[in-house]
Backbone:
């Protein structure tokens, strides 16, 4: 069952922790994930409040991407509980397609549909999932593309766009569905350095519009500037979490310190 | 030389045989119009089923496809034609040919389309599913359109083979082009109708061979 929610008026919040509301948008608890013999997540908890930007960092293989992918059930946890926007993702009776359209996801490799234009990429789910007519879907898509600064590229095919532009189309594809939360899986890792800025700028504007976001990324500068909370994961566990100033300035755990030291080199 | 022409390119004979050759051509075209869509539809079904990794789907599917790819189509056709009446099923030559072609060609189309489906990066499917599209919608709007485009040369090539293969229907006395040509040949004691049939087949298929060549060049250029 999907409950209709009225949106809280989006006043821009630039800094400071988001107000903690009673029910978190994402509440994952005791998440375990096995891939065959590999124990990737070993009992992870993650709660994300409305309008909060949570940054998940950690070495490769730490399970951070898997955790993110569990949050829209692209991976099904072996055990644990995940509630997103009040809906139990692991309940057999949950219509996963209905939930997923409220959870936007952006991938490292963009994953645009190459046989469709930028507008076509954005309108597909609007038309097939939300059942909107072509004209209305086009209108929403063009507005979403404008939000990511690509209004003039609506008719371009993915191969005609730079990596950064492709990633911004992918963001438009997700936000056009007006998700309650956005998941970013290393959104800038596949980009040439000069293209990273444009994508981060779009993410910052989403943040300022009040979007709830979970970001797996190595963009520590962005984390420092924009995150409400940083979660450090290693070996399938959350080692430490806290405001960016604490995690980057005075980490309590030796493993966190070691990881951050490595990044400086 | 005159004797050669009188034997193989006998205009009189071909003229006399042309009405039944034409009938044969129509039957061949009708057969193509039935066999190709049936084969493609069956192929799409087999290819889509192959996405399911569950052993209960996977192994029967592999057995099915392997069996009908290894089974000579001519033997299959004769078996259906001679065997079904013993099971009390009377469907006539055309029905037998349609079934035989469906079983044989759908397996080939299926394998081609499966390769096409597997050529689409997993990430695109995940992206589509993450926006709330169902597995069937993702297959229909994201995977299949690209899969078909990626294997278009193979699909055209296979279709050419199917058209050529329709000539085996002559062994079950379906009056298609080759059967009619042989009838005319045996009545006139002259092989010219066979030559005429060969020329008709060539004229029918050659445009598609050219098309295939161009598609293959484009496919190479895209890499």
Residues:
């Amino acid at each position: 069952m999907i409950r209709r929610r009225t949106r809280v008026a989006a006043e821009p919040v630039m800094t400071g922790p988001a107000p903690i509301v009673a029910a978190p948008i994402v509440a994952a608890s005791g998440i375990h994930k096995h891939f065959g013999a590999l124990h990737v997540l070993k009992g992870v908890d993650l709660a994300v409040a409305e309008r909060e930007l949570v940054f998940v960092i950690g070495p490769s293989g730490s399970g951070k991407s898997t955790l993110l992918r569990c949050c829209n059930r692209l991976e099904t946890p072996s055990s644990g509980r995940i509630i997103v926007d009040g809906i139990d993702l692991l309940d057999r009776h949950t219509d996963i397609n209905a939930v997923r359209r409220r959870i936007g996801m952006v991938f490292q490799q963009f994953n645009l549909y190459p046989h469709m234009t930028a507008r076509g990429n954005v309108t597909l789910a609007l038309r097939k999932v939300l059942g909107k007519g072509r004209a209305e879907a086009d209108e929403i898509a063009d507005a979403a593309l404008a939000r990511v600064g690509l209004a003039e590229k609506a008719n371009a095919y993915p191969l005609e766009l730079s990596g950064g532009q492709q990633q911004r189309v992918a963001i438009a594809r997700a936000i056009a569905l007006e998700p309650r939360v956005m998941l970013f899986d290393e959104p800038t890792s596949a980009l040439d350095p000069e293209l990273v800025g444009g994508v981060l700028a779009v993410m910052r504007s989403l943040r300022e519009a009040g979007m709830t976001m979970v970001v797996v990324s190595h963009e520590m500068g962005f984390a420092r500037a924009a995150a409400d909370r940083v979660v450090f994961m290693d070996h399938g566990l959350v080692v430490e979490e806290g405001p960016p100033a604490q995690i980057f300035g005075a980490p309590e755990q030796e493993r966190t310190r070691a990881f951050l030291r490595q990044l400086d080199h | 030389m005159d004797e050669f022409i009188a034997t193989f390119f006998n205009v009189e004979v071909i003229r006399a045989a042309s009405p039944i050759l034409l009938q044969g051509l129509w039957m061949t075209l009708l057969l193509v119009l039935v066999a190709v869509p049936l084969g493609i539809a069956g192929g799409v079904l087999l290819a889509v089923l192959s996405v399911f990794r569950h052993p209960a789907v996977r192994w029967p599917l592999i057995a099915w496809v392997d069996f009908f790819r290894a089974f000579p189509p001519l033997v299959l056709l004769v078996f259906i034609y001679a065997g079904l009446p013993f099971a009390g099923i009377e469907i006539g030559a055309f029905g037998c040919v349609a079934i035989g072609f469906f079983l044989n060609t759908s397996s080939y189309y299926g394998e081609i389309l499966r390769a096409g489906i597997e050529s689409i990066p997993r990430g695109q499917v995940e992206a589509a599913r993450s926006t709330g599209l169902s597995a069937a919608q993702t297959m229909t709007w994201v995977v299949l359109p690209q899969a078909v485009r990626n294997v278009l040369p193979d699909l055209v090539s296979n279709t050419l083979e199917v058209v050529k293969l329709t000539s085996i229907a002559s062994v079950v006395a379906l009056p298609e082009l080759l059967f009619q040509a042989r009838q005319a040949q045996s009545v006139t004691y002259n092989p010219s109708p066979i030559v005429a049939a060969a020329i008709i087949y060539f004229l029918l298929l050659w445009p598609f061979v050219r098309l295939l060549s161009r598609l293959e060049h484009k496919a190479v250029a895209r890499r």
In short: The first helix of chain A runs from residue 64 to 70. Residues 222 and 256 of chain A are 18 Å apart (CA to CA). Residues 1-14 of chain A have pLDDT under 50 and may be disordered.
